[in-house]
Amino acid sequence: MTEYLHILVFAAHPDDAELGCAGTILKHVALGQKVGIIDLTRGELGTRGTAEIRDSEAEAAGKILGLSVRENMEFRDGFFNIDEAHKLALIAKIRQYRPEIVIANALYDRHTDHGRGGTLVSEACFLSGLAKIETLGPDGSAQQAWRPKVVYRYIQDRHITPDFVIDITEVWEKKKESILAYGSQFFNPNSTEPETYISGSNFLKFIEGRAMEYGHAIGVTYGEGFNVERKVGVNNLDCLI
Predict the structure, then answer these.
(1) What single string gives the DSSP state of each residue in 47-100?
(2) Interval 216-236 mean pLDDT
């Protein structure tokens, strides 16, 4: 039986979702909603660790977040394309889990996989709603068309002005825990591996500083910023309080 998801997060690499929207995931899981992450690659080109280590770290982080689903598409890190084969693979996943909300990488970021992955997911979400595109589910049966209601984008490295901010103050410590589940990638004073852009202690300070910046913008301690593909509509002004 298919386990439908309320929110499906796509990430170019394991740890992207934790860095960009783990707080939001935690808040929605606490509401009793089913949330899943699909990583596009195994991060096998990362300087530190191995793909196998990243697999186990992603599994551990998923347990911290309380995910209903975590999968990996095993696209080629650094070299996956925005083409028919990759779009069809994602369409099949979108139709399998039928999410109301999809969250993906920003369209512009330091790592080229992020923007390319964000574009790939956006196009797959639209195409998934076209009934004449045929895909098969895990059991080999024909899938029905499905288009998520909205696509949002989390923000990682580059400074991007968010369209809205989620208050994650109450789950900040658990978000940090999910990030630090990736022990091969982030600051570890005992590591003998080469230092990278994200492995220094200052990078974790940057992540906290960014969260505080977004939180400050809405009058709270910590926040996560998101961009939208279309304008967000509300029923009344009370929804904005």
Answers:
(1) SSS-HHHHHHHHHHHHHHHT-SEEEEEEEPTTT--SSHHHHHHHHHHHHHH--S
(2) 95
